[in-house]
Design goal:
There is one protein chain. With 326 residues, this protein is an alpha/beta fold. It has two domains: 183 residues, Rossmann fold; 114 residues, Phosphofructokinase domain (Rossmann fold). Helices cover 41% and strands 18% of the residues. It is built from eleven helices and eleven strands. Strands 3-2-1-4-5-10-11 form a seven-stranded mixed beta sheet, with helices on both faces. Strands 7-8-6-9 form a four-stranded parallel beta sheet, sandwiched between helices. The protein is elongated and about 65 Å long. The mean pLDDT is 94. The chain binds adenosine-5'-triphosphate.
Length: 326
């Protein structure tokens, strides 16, 4: 592949607030630099189904404040096959696209890495997932908004939990990552967070009960990351009913509310910076990297690192939560 003249942009996997701000930033930065832009609808599925549309600056007007993704998103089994990826490549070439910007999570960037290697296509990834589980970036697009949504929802649950003096297990998203549960727990003043990162080290529920987490409280909120490792909120509630029947326990699964809503200022700014950086990276000749942010600086992270490495949680936060919930 030679000089990049036309960039295709797609959003893939789970949607995240701020994806639109990223689409806008990529589109406008590309056009500013004299590149053509094609929007690809429904992620890799749309690339295979040839859902490709020319994008001008007006196509991304008035979207920075909208949640979701105007390009839609999808999951594509077909893209997991060499035949599917060949079709995607043929459509891309026919549309005159010579580089891609892929906005998505772990799975989407895995697909991008494979596609880039197979066909020698320059691809830049943007971390777009509420889970915050991509290595090499302090924050992913959508994480801050999801955290704020969790905070607002749990504040409301706290009112009823206090009135009835109940123990609530509230399940949050994260797909095997405890960032939302742990940071959400600190933000709402929860009694604890049960997260997959330490699930194999300690029995978090037993520890919680042994520490007498309800001694000085008339309600308890425990945030639980959805994961087989934690047992999920339902699994934990079952355990409490069986092992500690003295507690009046309830479960709330926050679910898809966490994906929606207008992105926070932090997510809009992050998405705008990263979208801009993606085009800069392409023009500098960077290939097959995710652009991320570390200590407020833009960084380029090779796909292999961003996807393969487990991003560690900050264990100091567990201690902070424990101390503040006495
Ligand atoms: P989120 O973290 O928000 O769920 P994600 O990007 O991790 O988002 P996935 O459903 O895991 O979401 O992946 C999105 C798409 O990426 C898949 O439907 C598939 O098309 C593609 N993809 C994932 N893994 C691979 C792979 N190993 N090979 C080719 N394509 C893949």
């Amino acid at each position: 592949m030679g000089v990049v003249k036309c960039v295709g942009i797609l959003t893939s996997g789970g949607d995240a607030p701020g994806m639109n701000a990223a689409i806008r930033a990529v589109t406008r930065s590309a056009i500013y630099n004299g590149l053509a832009v094609k929007g690809i609808y429904r992620g890799y599925k749309g690339l295979i189904d040839n859902e490709i549309v020319e994008f001008k600056t007006q196509n991304v007007s008035n979207i920075i404040q909208q949640g979701g993704t105007i390009l839609k998103t999808a999951r594509s089994q077909e893209f997991m096959t060499p035949e599917g990826r060949q079709l995607a490549y043929d459509n891309m070439c026919n549309a005159g696209i010579d580089a891609l910007v892929v906005i998505g999570g772990d799975g989407s960037l895995t697909g991008a890495r494979i596609f880039a290697e197979e066909f020698d296509v320059p691809i830049i990834g943007l971390p777009g997932t509420i889970d915050n589980d991509l290595y090499g970036t302090d924050r992913t697009i959508g994480y801050d908004t999801a955290l704020n949504t969790i905070m607002e929802a749990v504040d409301k649950i706290r009112d009823t939990a206090t009135s009835h003096e109940r123990l609530f297990f509230i399940e949050v998203m994260g797909r095997d990552a405890g960032f939302l549960a742990l940071n959400g727990a600190i933000a709402v003043g929860a009694e604890a967070a049960i997260i997959p990162e330490i699930a194999t080290e300690v029995d978090q529920l037993a520890e919680l009960i042994q520490n007498g987490f309800r001694k000085s409280k008339n309600s308890s909120i425990v945030l639980v990351a959805e994961s087989e490792l934690t047992g999920g909120a339902m699994g934990l509630a079952e355990r409490v009913k069986n092992e500690y029947p003295q507690y009046d326990v309830r479960v709330t699964i926050l679910g898809h509310i966490q994906r929606g809503g207008s992105p926070t200022a932090n997510d809009r700014i992050l998405a705008s910076r990263l979208g801009n950086a993606a085009i800069d990276a392409l023009l500098e000749g960077q290939r097959n990297i995710m652009v991320g942010v570390q200590n407020d600086e833009i960084v380029n992270v090779p796909f292999v690192k961003a996807i393969k490495k487990d991003k560690p949680i900050n264990r100091d936060l567990l201690n902070t939560l424990r101390i503040l919930s006495i």
